[in-house]
Amino acid sequence: MKQDLLDLRYERCPMALLLVKRYTKEMNSGQKAMIYVSGRDSFSDIKRFLLQQSFQLCCKEVDGYYRIQVIKGTLSNV
């Protein structure tokens, strides 16, 4: 299964959140993706949104940005 990358390190909320919403809407159940964000506010908003949509998350802070590995669940509303 291919893992995609969405690099939003140069985007701020609300644009970063909007781009995540658009991106995840196109994902299939079980599909994996990696999302990079730099701002703490963007990270918090995106994480909250993904958890509400039944995504599985693995988050890590690396070299001044956040790396969020996501897997789309079967119960997602996106």
UniProtKB/TrEMBL annotation:
Lineage: Bacteria, Pseudomonadati, Pseudomonadota, Gammaproteobacteria, Vibrionales
Domain UPF0033: 6-72
Organism: Vibrio zhanjiangensis
Name this polypeptide is given: UPF0033 domain-containing protein
InterPro entries: TusA-like (IPR001455), TusA-like_sf (IPR036868)
Residues of the signal peptide: none
